[in-house]
Design brief:
Elements lengths: L11 H15 L12 H10 L5 H14 L3 H5 L3 H8 L5 H19 L7 H4 L7 H11 L9 H9 L8 H11 L5 H14 L40
Helix pairs in contact: 2-8, 5-6, 9-11
Length: 235
């Protein structure tokens, strides 16, 4: 992407390399938790992962890919049949339509193969920058900073950006983090958001970033112990 220079929060440039280094140590083997065998399977899985968990997506994709193993097969699939298979992921009407239309675009424009550039990926129906960045980084090794809800929340709490728009968040973070770290940082922020910096109940007392995080006071103290019940011995 073209990285633009924007006004960043105070200390963002100093915090960024520390965030990258510490999360790399904490989540050294970070990778997507979506199960896939090809770039096309990953693209379908990322689209299905909206508003649901990777575990749920992984539970439905084996049947989906067994029944429709290629973009060509999915492009001509009956939408109702797709909806039945992916029903558990939620929003199954729009998701079924999205993966069918995306596959149709792949067949018509790219011979059924997933393109490896941002410009081509975002022209596919159902594919935005977040989805494209995941596919670029994970399937093709092309640096990409995917911004999901966890990344949006954590980059704000860490004051790496004041933006709330995903594209602007991507621009801000990519301007202060080397391209080689974009994909891995996004994956690690997602894991950190799921395991430690949990929405509404951050476990700051367990966080490797607590001492540099401007928002750590939200949960720096360990949870209070419940009052000890009185016993006969106390009385």
């Amino acid at each position: 992407m073209t990285v633009r220079k924007r006004r960043l929060p105070a200390g963002a440039r100093a915090r960024a390399p520390i965030v990258v280094e510490r999360l790399a140590l904490e989540y050294a083997d970070a990778r997507t938790e979506l199960a896939f065998a090809t770039p096309w399977q990953l693209l379908v899985s990322v689209i299905l992962s909206a508003q649901t968990t990777d575990v749920t997506v992984n539970a439905v994709t084996p049947a989906l890919f067994a029944r429709f193993p290629t973009a060509e097969a999915l492009a001509t699939a009956p939408q109702g049949e797709i909806e039945e298979i992916i029903h558990r992921t939620g929003f199954f009407h729009s998701k079924a339509r999205a993966i069918i239309e995306m596959s149709q675009d792949l067949v018509l424009r790219h011979g059924g193969a997933v393109p490896s550039t941002m410009d081509d990926l975002v022209t596919l129906r159902g594919v935005g920058r977040k989805t494209a960045n995941v596919v670029l980084g994970v399937a093709f090794g092309v640096p990409g900073f995917a911004v999901d809800t966890h990344v949006t929340r954590l980059t704000g709490l860490l004051r790496l950006t004041t933006a709330t728009d995903p594209v602007k968040i991507e621009e801000d973070v990519c301007s202060i983090v080397p391209a080689k770290d974009w994909t891995s940082l996004s994956l690690r922020l997602i894991l950190h958001g799921r395991r430690i910096c949990i929405a509404n109940r951050p476990r700051c007392h367990e966080c490797v970033l607590a001492d540099i995080c401007p928002s750590a006071q939200l949960g720096l103290k360990p949870p209070a112990r419940p009052p000890r019940r009185s016993t006969a011995k106390d009385r």
